[in-house]
């Protein structure tokens, strides 16, 4: 550490004269320390490679990227033995150590762009890296995470402090799934039908969440600590997200948790996962999606004071159920309810057909969720905040891989998988 010692000694001497450290001392000291560390690592690999080995013909060197920067790694060369391996860096992929790969990947997935990630790495880790290399490592890590089996976070069993006054409730597992669209390149949208028969400009990623809670907040709503929520993302469709969510639920205690609730927006593929993978769960349609259909029904009735009619019906639905709210409308507006136009008929059919999954009064009394805010937020902070910025167009699978990294970070499994 001769360089570092010289910098420190000079800085302290200057500080004694002027009464303060010189400008740039921190960066100079860090640069010197990293240079010495890289040189030391290179000498270690040289020492290991210098050991005699039968059939070897001298040494070869290549550059391996570490958290301290590029390091010259020495290895024994054996003709016909393929690429020679260094004992110290035998597990490196693409000549990048695991720590450096993780650091670059996290920057690529969490910052606004690959260029910003490369600049941030240069500022914080004190070595240059190209946006292309950040992209390559981020997509590689995302692909690996997408193909890996679900795992339980080490932080899942740690006690979590919940602010405010809380009350105990029977332990419950919340499972949810939803989809969100990502703007995609022409290669992934050409020939794909969008809404209303128009050509598609985006493709859907499916997001799943599993959480476990045993406390209710001061407002009576369940509270899931951040360390007890884990996420999954895929671009392969409902069957794949269903298997991922089921595997994650098993890792987090499905079968041992007394109660399981599955909540979604009422879409057919969301309900299909509940029917195939979570039989016996308390299946719930999101309250706010139900409110949108109730609003359409009340508006299309053509009654005076539409707003008052809707607010009364919504309050009844929240306090009791959707079926009770429909009975209230039939009683107050019998003639209008018998002559529904097409939008009103569609809204009525939606509410009536899913009434058994809209018993919000009972769910609130028993300490269940009535809204899917957790999965809606997950779609925004895992996918939307990174993949839906102005001017972005993604390959469908690349958006899924970047989102898989963000899901692993949010699930507290990124550094252990």
Q: What is shown here, in short?
A:
The chain is of the alpha/beta class and 417 residues long. The protein has helices spanning 2-18, 25-49, 98-110, 114-125, 131-147, 186-189, 238-251, 268-277, 287-300, 306-319, 322-332, 334-338, 342-353, 360-365, 373-387, 396-410, and strands at residues 59-66, 69-76, 167-183, 202-216, 222-223, 229-234, 259-264, 282-285.
Please explain how this structure is put together.
The chain is built from 16 helices and 8 strands. By secondary structure, it is of the alpha/beta class. The chain folds into 3 domains: 2-147, no CATH class; 167-286 and 371-410, 2-Layer Sandwich (Nucleotidyltransferase, domain 5); 289-357, no CATH class. β4 and β5 form a beta hairpin. α4 crosses α5 and α9 runs antiparallel to α13.
Q: Which helices and strands appear, and what pairs or packs with what?
A:
Layout: H1 2-18, H2 25-49, E1 59-66, E2 69-76, H3 98-110, H4 114-125, H5 131-147, E3 167-183, H6 186-189, E4 202-216, E5 222-223, E6 229-234, H7 238-251, E7 259-264, H8 268-277, E8 282-285, H9 287-300, H10 306-319, H11 322-332, H12 334-338, H13 342-353, H14 360-365, H15 373-387, H16 396-410
Parallel strand pairs: 3-7, 7-8
Antiparallel strand pairs: 1-2, 3-4, 4-5, 4-6
Helix pairs in contact: 1-2, 3-4, 3-5, 3-16, 4-5, 5-16, 7-8, 9-10, 9-13, 10-11, 15-16
